[in-house]
Design brief:
By secondary structure, the protein is mostly helical. The protein has a domain of 85 residues. Helix content is 62%, strand content 10%. The chain contains 8 helices and 2 strands; from the N terminus they run αααααββααα. It has a two-stranded antiparallel ribbon. Helix 3 runs antiparallel to helix 4 and helix 4 packs antiparallel against helix 8. The two termini are 34 Å apart.
Length: 194
């Protein structure tokens, strides 16, 4: 029994006060993230993962002594940025910048209890958007994107339906950024230590 206590003191006990202080600092650092955490959807999972990556990247950037420390920190910051893209749906919403639409609610009956939304397109510049992503444009037209597999067999993509093509490209870009995020994590997570 005395030997066990001696070994504990030698390896852990004499550092216990430092571990305690570090734990208190961690509680303080994580408090805002945990306070806002909810169990509803992936946004909160992403928030916790992003926060951890940012904390670790800052630590490795500042104190990292291994050869690739700076590069590892850059990859972690990149993953945090990709998480932001996922949380904000930046690629999914990007195509909206390429058209100008107004919406109005029109009554569907005389009582004016029921309304339908009508949209009016004033201008669009989807060709610029398509030129920005030529590979995704071809994939969508060929039905090789991730959304086209959910189309019914008789529902063919019309090359004149620019709005729909733009939506499919936006979805494809969002999927690509998510896959890139987890590919970077998968390939590097075991080497991210200091």
């Amino acid at each position: 029994m005395i030997e066990r206590i001696r070994l504990w003191w030698k390896f852990d006990g004499k550092y216990y006060h430092k571990y305690f202080i570090y734990g208190i600092k961690n509680l303080w650092k994580w408090l805002p993230v945990i306070w806002k955490d909810r169990d509803w959807d992936q946004h909160y999972i992403y928030t916790i993962l992003k926060t951890k990556l940012e904390f670790q990247a800052q630590h490795i950037h500042k104190y990292g002594f291994h050869v690739g420390a700076k590069r590892d920190a850059e990859k972690m910051f990149l993953c945090a940025r990709l998480i932001e893209i996922q949380q904000e749906d930046l690629y999914k919403m990007e195509y909206i910048d390429y058209h100008d639409v107004s919406y109005e609610f029109v009554p569907t009956d005389e009582t004016k209890k029921w309304f339908e939304m009508k949209d009016t397109t004033h201008s669009e510049s989807y060709d610029e958007y398509f030129a920005k992503y030529p590979r995704q444009y071809k994939k969508v037209l060929n039905g090789e994107d991730t959304l086209s597999k959910y189309l019914k067999p008789d529902d063919v993509m019309d090359s004149n339906d620019k709005h729909r093509i733009a939506m499919f490209i936006a979805h494809e870009n969002q999927e690509r950024s998510r896959k890139l995020l987890f590919k970077i994590i998968e390939e590097n997570i075991e080497s991210w230590w200091d």
